[in-house]
Structure prediction request, 503 residues.
Amino acid sequence: MSEKKNISKKELRRRKRKRALMIKTGILCVLLVIFGIGIWALAGGTEKIQQKAQEKEDQKTAEVDGSVSSDSTGSAEAPTTQVLCYNKRTLCCIITNQIMAEADALAQTYDYDGAIEKLQSVEGAATDADIITKVAEYTSTRDACVRVNDNEVTHIFYHSLVVDPQKAFYQDNAQTAGFCQWMTTVDEFNAITQQMYDRGYVMVSINDLVKKTVDDDGTVHYEEGDIYLPEGKKAFVLSLDDLSYYHSYDGRGIASKMVVGDDGKPTCEYIQDDGTVVTGAYDCIPLMDQFIEAHPDAVYHNARGTVALTGYDGILGYRTDGDYKTREDLTDDQVAWLDAHPDFDWDKECEEAKKVADAIKADGWTFASHTWGHIRVGDKPIETIQADTEKWLTYVAPLIGGSDIIIFAHGQDLSDWHDYTMDNEKFAYLKSQGFNIYCNVDSSQYFVQVRDNYLRMGRRNLDGYRLYQNLYGGGEDRTSDLFDSASVIDPQRPTDPSLYNLG
Prediction:
């Protein structure tokens, strides 16, 4: 009997140890699951968790309650319930903090309504003191904002940026004067961006300037948009011309193409002197993205600019025009490029260009036509404009997903400052092809026309010509409202007035 009793006691102790181990293991598993859910929430699963958290926890609690009631002692199950309750509160705290961070990010870009809506989506928001305080803060800031006058929104633009001024400005050939006049250096761009930010300028999308409605038959109607910014802030629109990286840019200290970076964001390739290809912020898009990341209040509702593309040399550094496929009607530069790339695959080139375009759009940028052949629409007959537009719609539009914006090359326009009418055959044709927003070049501070059937906007060139003229041209400084030319001009820029068409 004593032996049987001893065996029973040993077995009992063994079973207790086994049971305790199972309980500890169960608690650990629950903690790991909850921790994993928390990490998932931080990675973007917040809303889904919030909807299902209560249901899952109720189920877990019921299971725990059942196990407690089936155990006569209940001594080992109570801690499990406490752990679950504790971690439920921890998870809810993680979710709430994540949502509050997302709301704050929206508020930094002046999207106060979005921030408030985000906070009010939190379970128990109506009684959470921190959320109530934040909602009141966003509401007060929003209500103090001032409506932007569309007619006082300036529009600036750049061409591709110069990375190496020595290559761009000091080669003795016919192109040098053009690079001096049309191009802005990376250092100049960064300095201008910083000064405009310091002066309270906030970038808005050109589409933010209007409220758009569309009739059942597809007819577009516009009225002035509703942009609200804190008092003292000033809205501006940004566009980029000729981001096609023409053959004429080769060897001139400019990026060679746009690519998709390891982070999925658009960036640039640049070819160094030894032929090494490096990736980085060598042009406007990645540089502006970097600035916005550091200064989220530099943009309205996380807006970006508009990229105006031609097509005759392809887009974004990719040789996507049909002439490269047919090998007909090629320029000498195009022939030389194809000879240097015997493995060229046109379909693959288009595929890569589309991937980059998609990444640029996902980043918030919009696209526009710059005409296929960089033509002067004011001087050309309607037949030329029609043929050119057909090429752009065939070879560019499919790669970028189309666009209803056209930014005229050479700063030209379809008419003078008077309103467009359907009597203007060029305007009537472009409208029939889906274009609703039209931009020229105007050195005035503002030129905006919001009409029922179109938006028209003048742009200001922030380039070498403008910088040099401001300082040495003897005329009015036309950009002093934006920045100080003397402090932003690149010291590596030539000072010969003949290079700037000023003497």
